[in-house]
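Weekly puzzle thread! Below is a chain. First person to post its structure in token form gets bragging rights.
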Amino acid sequence: MTHLMTSASDLPPPTLCWVDDDVAVLRAAASGDVPAQERLWRTHLDAVHRVCASQLRQHDAEDAVADTFLVAFEVGASFDPARGSVRAWLLGIAVNQVRRRWRVDRRIASTLARVQGRERRDAATDDHADRVIARADAGGVRHALERLSDADRLVLVAQAAGDLLPLELAEVLGVTPGAAKVRLHRARSRLAALLAATSD
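Winning reply:
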């Protein structure tokens, strides 16, 4: 009987053209490529989870994370890289998932280390606010975050979770880069004012 199978050595090596390209991974994931979906999940899960877990109870946060990636898989083919990074786009979806769940329930969890300790790359930074926030203890920052408005808290959490550039934060919030800088500046200033008031 003639053996018709080609040996493994005769086959060309597999090519994964999206290995180091987030946009290509997203496009492959949107086309139903399971390995690409898994890679997108592994690469961005931590940042997406930080945004969702900071605002929702555990089971709601897990649902919001899952829904974020499901939406990404469904609409990823329409992603426009000119508008920002895949990470910022995913965090924007996560923010929308959080907003949808706010009416049901909300919970503030700690993103304090990122809010307090990360290096600022935003030219609109208020140095005084940074110093006040950095000096505060974790409990004080948590209490102050709970007293902020939803909008201010979400700006701080989204920026800290992804360590986003101003353009990326603008994409997440769905506003212009200038408006994103203003919102971040105001949120940090209000957080610093609350911290300063409690330390007096």
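Puzzle host: Confirmed. Bonus trivia for everyone else. The mean pLDDT is 75.
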